[in-house]
Design brief:
The chain has about 270 residues and is of the alpha+beta class. Helix content is about 15%, strand content about 35%. Strand 9 and strand 10 form a beta hairpin. It is globular, with a radius of gyration of 17 Å. This is DUF3047 domain-containing protein.
C-alpha cells in the first residue's frame, strides 16, 4: 500500500502558484496548436509522419490555456493502439477556470508532454469525475479501465530488460508508432481497489498503478493530490527511479465498453 496523497485544494493552489515563478517555459508558438491538430488528423488515418514534439521543462498549465484552441498548447495526442477509438479531449471552463474535459465511449487515448530529463521530485495535480466505471477492475486485463489516469514516464537502461519485455516494447512501437519509456508510474481513480493499492499493470510489468481515489464517495468534486515520485517509484518498482521524461493523462473505457466523463486541472512538477 502507498501513502495517502489527497490535500486541501486551497493548499494545492497555493503550492502550485508558489512554483510558477522561474519554472515556466518560454511561450510555445501557436504553430504548436497546428501540430497538435495535425497529429489528431494523423491518428484518424493520415499516414504522414509528424516531426517529434519539442521537449519542455514543465507541463503547460491548463488554467493558462485559451479556449480558442482545441487542445492545450504543448500537449500532444497519445495513441494507445491505432485500432482503438480515441477518447475526446477538449478545453472547457469549469468552476471559473480552464481545464481539460475528457469524454470516453468505448475508447482509449491520452495526452502527454515530453519533458527535458529531470529528477523525480514532487508531483501535484487536481481532477474530477462524474462517476466510476462500475464493472472495471484494474487488476484484470479484460476490465482494466479508469475514468482518470495521470502517468509519469521514466528513463532507464532498456538493455537490462528481459527478452520478453524487449519484445513487448518492440510490439508497442509497431502498434503505436512511439517508443515506450523504460518504466511508468500511473496514478488512477479506481473502482474496486482501495486507495493506496499498488497494482502491476495486467499487460506489462513496466507499468505500476497507484490508486489515489476510489469509488463514488468523491464523485463530482475536485480532488487535489501531492505525491513524492521518488518514494512512489521505490514502493512500486523496488529501486530508485531514472530521470522523468514525460507526463500524461488518460481516460479509457475500451475494455469495459462503457462511457466516462472526467476533468483534469493543472499538473505541476517540482
Amino acid at each position: 500500500m502507498a501513502a495517502a496523497s489527497s490535500i486541501d485544494c486551497k493548499v494545492f493552489a497555493a503550492r502550485v502558484a508558489s512554483n510558477e515563478n522561474g519554472t515556466a517555459d518560454a511561450p510555445v508558438a501557436d504553430a504548436m496548436t497546428a501540430a497538435n491538430e495535425q497529429a489528431i488528423e494523423a491518428e484518424a488515418g493520415d499516414d504522414g509522419e509528424a516531426a517529434p514534439p519539442p521537449l519542455l521543462a514543465n507541463p503547460p498549465r491548463f488554467s493558462s490555456a485559451s479556449l480558442q484552441h482545441r487542445l492545450p498548447v504543448g500537449w500532444q495526442p497519445w495513441t494507445i493502439n491505432r485500432n482503438k477509438t480515441p477518447t475526446r479531449y477538449t478545453l472547457a471552463e469549469v468552476d471559473q477556470r480552464v481545464v481539460v474535459h475528457a469524454q470516453a465511449d468505448s475508447s482509449a487515448s491520452g495526452l502527454y508532454v515530453p519533458l527535458r530529463d529531470r529528477d523525480a521530485g514532487m508531483l501535484r495535480w487536481t481532477w474530477k469525475t462524474n462517476g466510476i466505471i462500475r464493472n472495471a477492475d484494474n487488476g484484470q486485463g479484460q476490465r482494466e479501465d479508469s475514468p482518470l489516469r495521470l502517468f509519469v514516464a521514466f528513463d532507464g537502461d532498456k538493455g537490462s530488460l528481459s527478452l520478453k519485455d524487449q519484445l513487448m516494447y518492440e510490439m508497442a512501437r509497431l502498434t503505436t508508432g512511439r517508443e515506450m519509456p523504460y518504466a511508468t508510474l500511473m496514478y488512477i481513480w479506481g473502482g474496486k481497489r482501495p486507495e493506496g493499492s499498488v497494482l502491476p499493470n495486467p499487460h506489462t510489468d513496466r507499468v505500476r498503478m497507484i490508486v489515489v481515489d476510489s469509488g463514488t464517495k468523491h464523485a463530482n468534486e475536485w480532488r487535489c493530490h501531492e505525491r513524492d515520485l521518488r518514494a512512489d517509484y521505490r514502493k512500486a518498482f523496488g529501486t530508485d527511479p531514472g530521470r522523468v521524461i514525460a507526463v500524461g493523462i488518460m481516460t479509457d473505457t475500451d475494455n469495459t465498453r462503457s462511457k466516462a466523463e472526467s476533468w483534469y486541472g493543472d499538473i505541476a512538477l517540482d
